[in-house]
Design a protein that fits this description.
single chain; 108 residues; four-stranded mixed β-sheet; 21% helix; 29% strand
Length: 108
């Protein structure tokens, strides 16, 4: 789970960085992958994004798969505008690995 704080909201408006280094993540991209299978291995960042869901205006859930196992990663953030931009961006990345998504340059 990633939590954005007040401190991360005070950043320059036009900043282009790889998503994993975005100040809102405070060095914690990606969120830890969770699965309902107890024998599931940690996919690292090689799982493939397949669905992005807004649970609220501050929570994004990413569903991914790797090796026949479904994983969920939850992002909890405080900036609603950032959440909406991030959700739209993540939806455009469906079919990509979490690692590749984290390397993508963003300017929001």
């Amino acid at each position: 789970m990633i939590v954005e704080t007040e401190e991360t909201l005070n950043r320059p408006e036009s900043l282009t960085v790889p998503l994993r280094f975005h100040p809102s993540f405070r060095g914690r991209w990606p969120a830890y992958p969770c699965s309902n299978r107890t024998d599931a291995a940690n996919p690292g960042n090689e799982d493939v994004l397949e669905l992005v869901t807004l649970r609220s205006m501050r929570v994004i859930v990413m569903r991914s798969h790797y090796g026949g196992v479904t994983y969920y990663r939850t992002l909890c953030l405080t900036n609603k505008a950032f959440v909406m931009q991030l959700a739209a961006f993540l939806r455009s990345q469906i079919g990509e690995t979490i690692d590749k998504i984290g390397s993508a340059l963003v300017d929001f």
